[in-house]
Amino acid sequence: MAALGWLTPRRRSATARSVLAGEASAEAARKSQEALAEDASTPADGTLSTDAGEPDFPVLGDTKAAAFFDLDNTVMQGAAIFHFGRGLYKRKFFETRDLAKFAWQQAWFRLAGVEDPQHIQDARDSALSIVKGHRVAELQTIGEEIYDEYMAERIWPGTRALAQAHLDAGQKVWLVTAAPVEIAGVIARRLGLTGALGTVAESVNGIYTGKLVGEPLHGPAKAEAVRALAAAEGLDLSRCAAYSDSHNDIPMLSLVGHPYAINPDTKLRKHAREMDWRLRDYRTGRKAAKVGIPAAAGVGAVAGGTAAAIALSRRRR
Prior knowledge:
This protein is α/β, with parallel strands linked by helices.
């Protein structure tokens, strides 16, 4: 895939594979944006109700601003790639010994609460070998089913309400995840978001080759994807917001003017406090650790999150 000409200069070094992964993800996100936008006109999982006296962030009608949300343990409990693996096993894409590996990785993720690059990489390698030779359209259809089976009930209502606050302000909201872009796109559409930046698996004539374009969208590659998308969309990153639970996403969080640590791991919590970033932890119900978290993300998240949870519950019946 040719490098995209609208990639802006980078203020720090990044590997060529990170840049390629970021550009590929941004291009894939933009190609799917129109279709997602049609479904996003009516949010899938409830809307956030806010009071008139809330602080002016997100800024209503600011089209130069957007929000970027990490997925695993920020928007959703656990890792999307592991839930996807469970769904593929159910459909006999692979054998029991492979499921045991996925289960162990997911158990480690839930206990540790942070991303281990090696565990994530191992899971992705397994997934790539499993989908090799399958059609992209087939995996997209299966992704819809897997979302309902394993992911819908794991969405954090509080983070969903944060995303809705940006949507209500007229801003675009993107998932940014190391999960396959097809699966990320399904999740974004089902949540009523604008679209998703995710890992791009190579395909030829609509069939997966078992290789990646660049590398997994992880760490610096996420920052490259956000930078590329912002340039293409004409966004001002100083007016944008980013949300993540992991210190691995500090490069992405550092790009924007409004970084948030959501359900942060120990390293990110420490860094966020040092940098005076806003924090929110939905795992324990703790209040924001820094003054300045938007009221729409605090008080409003209770109302909006409850609505989202009710909607999710009704959908599963």
